[in-house]
TrEMBL record, chain B:
<dbReference type="InterPro" id="IPR015854">
    <property type="entry name" value="ABC_transpr_LolD-like"/>
</dbReference>
<dbReference type="InterPro" id="IPR003593">
    <property type="entry name" value="AAA+_ATPase"/>
</dbReference>
<dbReference type="GO" id="GO:0005886">
    <property type="term" value="C:plasma membrane"/>
</dbReference>
<dbReference type="Pfam" id="PF00005">
    <property type="entry name" value="ABC_tran"/>
</dbReference>
<keyword id="KW-0067">ATP-binding</keyword>
<protein>
    <submittedName>
        <fullName>ABC transporter ATP-binding protein</fullName>
    </submittedName>
</protein>
<dbReference type="GO" id="GO:0016887">
    <property type="term" value="F:ATP hydrolysis activity"/>
</dbReference>
<keyword id="KW-0547">Nucleotide-binding</keyword>
<dbReference type="InterPro" id="IPR003439">
    <property type="entry name" value="ABC_transporter-like_ATP-bd"/>
</dbReference>
<feature type="domain" description="ABC transporter">
    <location>
        <begin position="12"/>
        <end position="252"/>
    </location>
</feature>
<dbReference type="InterPro" id="IPR027417">
    <property type="entry name" value="P-loop_NTPase"/>
</dbReference>
<dbReference type="GO" id="GO:0022857">
    <property type="term" value="F:transmembrane transporter activity"/>
</dbReference>
<dbReference type="InterPro" id="IPR017871">
    <property type="entry name" value="ABC_transporter-like_CS"/>
</dbReference>
<keyword id="KW-0813">Transport</keyword>
<dbReference type="InterPro" id="IPR017911">
    <property type="entry name" value="MacB-like_ATP-bd"/>
</dbReference>
<dbReference type="GO" id="GO:0098796">
    <property type="term" value="C:membrane protein complex"/>
</dbReference>
<dbReference type="GO" id="GO:0005524">
    <property type="term" value="F:ATP binding"/>
</dbReference>
Amino acid sequence: MMRSRFRDQVPTLLVATLAGTFGAFLLQVIGLLEAVISADDVAGSSGTVALMLAIVATVFIVIAVYVSAIVTANTVSTVVAGRTRLIALLRLIGSSARAQRAEIAREGLVIGLAGAALGILLGSGLAFALERVAVATGTIPEVGFDYVTPSVLLPAAAVVLTTWLASWVGSRRVLRVRPIEAIGNANEAARDELVARRGRHGVALAFVIVGALLLALGVVVGLASPLGVFIGLVGGILSFTGIVLAAHVVMPPVLRLVGRVLGGSPAARLAAENAVRNPERSSRTTIGLVIGVTLVTTFSVTMQSYRELLLAAAADRPGMEQAIDEPLTITISIFTVLIGFSAVIAAIGMVNTLSLSVLQRTRELGLLRALGFDRAQLRLMIVAESAALTVAATLTGLVLGFAYGWAGAQALLGSIQGEPRLVVPAVPWAVFGVILVAAALLTIAASVAPARRAMRVSPVVALAVD
Amino acid sequence: MQIQPSDLGLIARVAGLGKRYGDGAGTVTALDDVSLGLRRGEFTAIMGPSGSGKSTLMHIMAGLDSPTSGRAWLGDTEITELSDSALTVLRRRRVGFVFQSFNLVPTLDVRANVMLPFELDGRATTIEERAWIDELVATLGLTARLRHRPHELSGGQQQRVAIARALATRPDLVFADEPTGNLDSRTGREVLGLLAAASASAGQSIAMVTHDPIAASHADRILFLADGRIVRDAPRSTPEEISAFMLSMESAA
């Protein structure tokens, strides 16, 4: 049983390992850069640079850990949904709900530890490889950097704690499994999927309203001072948290809209229904990706606006324009890649959740086969479902990101020319293009394994009584 | 000229059917040279103790499984020779299923579940079919439930939805696998009455696998299986007669 318990947790381990690797890698590279800079420190400014680098690294690590925590909580929820029968059976023979939940949280701790350890090894290894390449090509001198530093333990500890915590949060539904579910018919739609959560709605609404007001205030203050961006930042975090909390309300309309585009074939219509009719499941699957895309878009819209404003200001001095543009473009690109890593973690989370949820629907797929769905239709259904989820998440992320990005740019840059002015949001087409291509790839990647598995399902499983 | 099953008034037929699992010393024989015909418009019960091969027989007759030897027909179509995709289309258009665990699609409401076979076929319903479905839904007492989803229904209601779905396409044959296995006895009787009525009034051919003598007593004909063979072919019987025969089979074994 232990083996099967951990097998469905592989996605959790993957996410923890990725976050751990990212954190360790960034800190090692920062440490390496500090060593390189202080080695030929003539200006004595290495302290400031080191501090700046550390702050930047912290921000990106926090974002990556935050996204991976949300992805982990959602993955654990999906895992628990798949284990309902087993949990019910254990409850039936006398285990308490609390003990069952503690067991899953304990798994989270073990997985977090394993992921963090793997992350340190992989991240440090990657940083070492990068150093060797840089030294070999003469980009940096040999500084004899020591990779055994206590500082890498910080992101590792963050990964352990968040995986543990996210497992605890994600395992909430264990409490709602009733022992009786071990007996009798297994209708896979648990009632709790539809239970209204008034409390959660209220909190989410309050977050969105307060956040939006602060965001507006930030924009207004931004007309007078760039400090408005900090008010806007708080507003952005609050309102976005509200949206994440209310994902099961926000996502279905988007999914319905996207589902309509899929077309009228029975496979496409069923896929659209699948994506919409279980709001809890579909919001679990998509929200990580929404967060990832929103972050990337917000960041790149703000930065692109900033860049275009600077370039416009320097337009009459050609040499200046060149001098500003190059380092700025490089900086923005690096930051976009770093923030994009969170989107990658989210994408992997989505692939996993979709796989697991297809795995859990074996009986339903067998039923469709028994009723006359052929294999190609089944595959089409899974691909269409994957596409609906990916497209909906990407669109939502792009729209939200664009709004936040514009608000950010306005709050940051509204007063930059000494007088209040409206900032026209710049569209980072290259980033949008990358996001769309990545979304297309993700649709395929997310559906390959589940579709293959679905096609292997025999119609006889629908008749079996388990 | 070969005699077709339909010439004999049969809706389904199997001849010399055998199904074995594994090989060598560990071979398990689920079906051993079974030949039978199901008559059009009849409600047939297939009975037998656990492991008698009744489920395997049903799976093969419904095109869900393939036999090791022998042949099976649905109507005049020999299904043992069909490809997977041809079998899929056959199940879609000519077979209906009612399962023990109801097996409705949880994401779809009652109406969509009943319409599913047409959805899967990618076609709209004709006026005549719609009238039939409306009649079915009314007969089964589901009119007020059309917008509900499966988990909002009781077991008996879910099974009635499954029956509506199975009958909606007017299939050649409806297979019912222990349809009352998950229901209380009163609801179970109701469901059996509905199946018997579909057979008597609409001429629906039904094959029901069960080990419950009371369920089997609703059928026009009862086939008894033991150790992969048909041991008795009985007309309509009372639960007492069926139980008595089942007990005699037990003691003979």
